[in-house]
């Protein structure tokens, strides 16, 4: 008698049972390289993205987010899950003219509820800069595991106070 079950992680060979371990060999790079499902913006309704901005050099504190309270700097954007950080940067620059200056730095983070502990958590996802191309420009909400209901928190830093470029940005 010969049987093998990967799901149960055991093998039956003759009358002897032997436990085997099955482990995933998928790396983070391979996960990131998986193609995203294309979104047809003509047929799919956009989602409401609640964006909170700050220009003090730091993301909002998590205690500023609660069931009945959010920071006052809310910007509501209708977009899709395949929206890139560069696309979102352009939309923000339409609303905040001072953010249009070349060299303005945008640091993006997802704010989400944590099911393990009450409250919110923050996950920094990338940054863009006005007038420069960067590696995070083409990053999408979908690729960063954004879920409908999450918030986006963006630190807008003017060019005279921007952190030094990390070598990932390049001029147009």
TrEMBL record:
Signal peptide: none annotated. This is Histone deacetylase complex subunit SAP18. Belongs to the SAP18 family. It comes from Pipistrellus nathusii (Nathusius' pipistrelle). Transmembrane segments: none annotated. The keyword Transcription regulation applies. Gene3D superfamilies: ASAP complex, SAP18 subunit (3.10.20.550). Keywords: Repressor, Transcription, Transcription regulation. InterPro entries: Hist_deAcase_cplx_SAP18 (IPR017250), SAP18 (IPR010516), SAP18_sf (IPR042534). The keyword Acetylation does not apply.
């Amino acid at each position: 008698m010969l049987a093998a079950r990967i799901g149960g992680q055991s093998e039956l060979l003759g009358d002897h049972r032997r436990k085997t371990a099955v482990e995933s060999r998928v790396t983070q790079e391979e996960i990131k390289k998986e193609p995203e499902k294309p979104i047809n913006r003509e047929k799919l309704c956009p989602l409401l993205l609640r964006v909170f901005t700050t220009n003090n050099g730091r993301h909002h504190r998590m205690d500023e987010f609660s069931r009945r309270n959010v920071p006052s700097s809310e910007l509501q954007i209708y977009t899709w899950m395949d929206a890139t950080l560069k696309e979102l940067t352009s939309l923000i620059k339409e609303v905040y003219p001072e953010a249009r200056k070349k060299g303005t730095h945008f640091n993006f983070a997802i704010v989400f509820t944590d099911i393990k502990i009450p409250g919110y958590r923050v996950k920094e996802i990338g940054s863009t800069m006005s007038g420069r191309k960067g590696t995070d420009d083409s990053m999408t909400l979908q690729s960063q595991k954004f879920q409908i209901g999450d918030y986006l928190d963006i630190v807008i830093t003017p060019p005279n106070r921007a952190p030094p470029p990390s070598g990932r940005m390049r001029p147009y």
